[in-house]
## 1
Amino acid sequence: MITTPTRHPLPVLASLWDYLAEVTSALGIGLESCTVDHDSPASAYVALDEQLRSRPGRDVALLWDEVHGWAAAIETHSGEDLIVIRYLGGKTVVPPPAEVTRFVTALRDDDHRIGRLTPPHLRGATGLADLEVVLSRRA
């Protein structure tokens, strides 16, 4: 199920929206650019209103999920699934917003020193209760 940025009665989803608000604020965009899917694994989509020099004509989005953390993807022209071009990686699925911002800056600059091509396995999709623990540790 996809939700929009409203206060959610489940604390874990409220915490996820709070995290997304911090990340989007650091990126200079608003929560209106986000959607959250709280099926397992929980995931989020953040539209970036730009294109990369290395991928002209393709809109860019950030994807987040509770297993791999953040990834950058480009839209296809045919409406098919997004094409993931790079994963942030790291130690946690909820890195500080400044780290996500550095990742996006590296994408814009075509700097391949930040991120990775293969998906990291940072944790299992073990349910919303466990995700709440992960989200609460970031504070």
## 2
Amino acid sequence: MTDVLTPDAPAATPTVTGDAAATGDTAANAATGTARVEVRTGGAWAAVCAVEHLVPGRGVAALLPDGGQIALFLDRTGTVHAIGNRDPFTGAYVLSRGLLGSVDGAPFVASPLLKQRFDLASGRCLDDETVTVPAYATRVR
């Protein structure tokens, strides 16, 4: 299930998170307006969606090649983040519907169900340090 939102405002210039650097056809993609978000999973990069489908401050859910779900976010600074979409407290695939915020400059998403907050860089739950969700490196090409 891929939930694609149409932007109602221009997105900020996206940046890379995780251990990745944007390389390759970036100039060619920019010239054709087809810059895409990729997520590192299973040792390889997987294209997820066109960056223009992301709206700052909102999340979308996407399927990975292995059938897993991620929650993809473009924060208001233009940084793309990806974490697992499954809320470990309820088992529901809803983190992409959560509210974005930040603590000491570090972005998080609050689950729409029980409101636990998950760090978007590490996947660590800020309200229960024994719980995490997968966090994925992202890049825009």
## 3
Amino acid sequence: MLALAGCAQPGQLGHPEPTAIPVAPAPVPGTAAEAPAGPRVVGRGLIDIPLRFRTPAPADYAIRALELGPGEALGWETHPGTELTLLDAGQVTVQETDACARRVLTPGDVAVFGEGVAHVVRNTGAEPARLVVTTFLVQGVPEATPVPPACPEDPATPAP
């Protein structure tokens, strides 16, 4: 006796034909749906202060993507470590205790806030602002501490 082994294919032996799965059209080059071909440089520039990344013990780091709507702010705060804030899109204004003058960041610009420096970041543009915030912080303590406004002419803006 001859035995045949195998599996029935769709459409054979009562198995239904598969239903067609719609395939999305290929993205048009230059559109938002197009996936990046590799790493992209989001910003490049000069940091005009000396940077020193030293910690007395191991440090925690975090990299966060944040979006602020027009008029929103992160509020006045300090950190137990260093923060680098890169603006990816939109416009923000930063202020810090060492220089109350407002500094406008445009896409690709970076603000660096040292340990314990009170600062605020506000979206002062008409569109959402996308930020990439990297922090190197002392372990086991709060990541940020809210503080009163450091610049008297500028009222505090509550955190979103």
## 4
Amino acid sequence: MTSNKKQGRNPVPHPEVPGRPCSVAAALQLVGERWALLAIREIFYGNQRFDQIVRNTGAPRDRLAARLRALEEAGVVERRAYSERPVRFAYHLTEAGRELAPVMRALLAWGDRWAVDTPPVAVRHRGGADSEHGAEHDLDLASTCRTCGEEVAPGSLTIDVRAPGWDQAGPVEGRAPSTS
């Protein structure tokens, strides 16, 4: 594993993944397991104690403990003691964990549309003081390009492969890095 030291942030280990060099694959190595994402969901919801996370995810205790340890090692969560006798910890999201919020909202929106008949949770949004939408309302996600300010439409994206020895179709013959 290598680590991310961009912009003076706390280093997050970069896992080595087989196949195409890909940030999606590296991210899934860190947070892509079911119990890991459900634990992150619970911490986002404010349920930071182990027993709350177990109850609300349905995860086996040993498996959840392992996932939380891995998330802590990856720099996604941190433990903070809330009791000394007995010693007990609460889990809090780090900067890297908090930056998973758009991913979690996107998974929720996708699941509401494609995986359930009736959405069991709604994320509510209240516009700021300068907003014409000061009343609270259900969040309706959209992706907006920070450079031009336009909403991102599905057909407006292209892929620019920057990994040496790879193009969009896969490894470039004669230039692909070894996979050993």
